[in-house]
Design goal:
Layout: E1 23-28, E2 44-49, E3 55-61, H1 79-85, E4 90-93, H2 98-107, E5 111-114, E6 123-124, E7 134-135, H3 138-147, E8 173-179, E9 182-189, E10 192-197, E11 200-201, E12 211-212, E13 214-228, E14 234-239, E15 242-250, E16 253-261, E17 269-272, E18 285-291, E19 295-298
Parallel strand pairs: 1-4, 2-18, 4-5, 13-18
Antiparallel strand pairs: 1-3, 2-3, 6-7, 8-9, 8-19, 9-10, 10-11, 10-12, 13-14, 13-15, 15-16, 16-17
Amino acid sequence: MVRKIVWPLTGLAVSRTPTEPALSVKIDNAPAARPQSGLDRADLVFECLVEGGMSRFLAVYQSHSVAELGPIRSARPVDGALLNALNGGIFAYSGAATGEIAPAKAYSASFLLSNDDDPVPFYRLGSRFAPENVYSSSANLRAEAARKSAHPGLPRPLFTYGPVVPGSPTSRQLSVVVGGSASASWVYAGGSWLRSENGSPHLLANGQQIRATNVVVLRVQVTHSGIIDAAGNEDPFVLAWGSGAAEVFRNGVVEHGRWSRPSIANAYRFTSAAGGPLTLAAGPTWIELIPANGSVSPG
């Protein structure tokens, strides 16, 4: 029997054994950051709470190249645990306070590319104002890592993929509140989940609405980082390990279960309410990390 070769981060078939490390890029989601570029080419996107009740994305690329990525912003403490789950790879960001980048350095073997330390693979768009004007491409970032003789490991699969569990409840819309200034909704149409941001279609710079094959909602704990921004807001430390409720929205249904990751050194484990594996459909996935004071409204 011939073994099927798939991309580890999407489960989609590929004709060769993948050799590309994960490329993770910190993309802003403040109002001034929109419309963003490149999110439609990501294999995975994590949405996480940041200061001021807003959210920021960690977009992960392996199976596709992307010509324009941005706006690229600063790292956050949650990144270390997420990068560790991806087996490191390359992490591109634009600036970070010492405490914000410390977890990425401590918990992961990622090769770090920062616009402040090495501006070579980055550029600024003249049509946008700083700090929302730092951009790059997957080719530039991978080339710079290669130029510096980086040899990051290949990503581990985050999820398992399989058919819908018979009898799963129908769900064709979903609303999540990540923070006081960040809410999103998803509608299932044409075989994909289409994203809206704060009530309006979430469109990218190329005019495309963000879409995903799966939307995974994980309930997470949030603690203090002690890092305060210029406006007096504390940067929350979103804990991407521990355990909590999990919901997978796929194929117009929702499947309930739990996620577990006892420590940063462990892989994620997803278990259905029936006790078996909580599986996804093969394709791009958005992961919503929802704090205890956030909300999830399936429909």
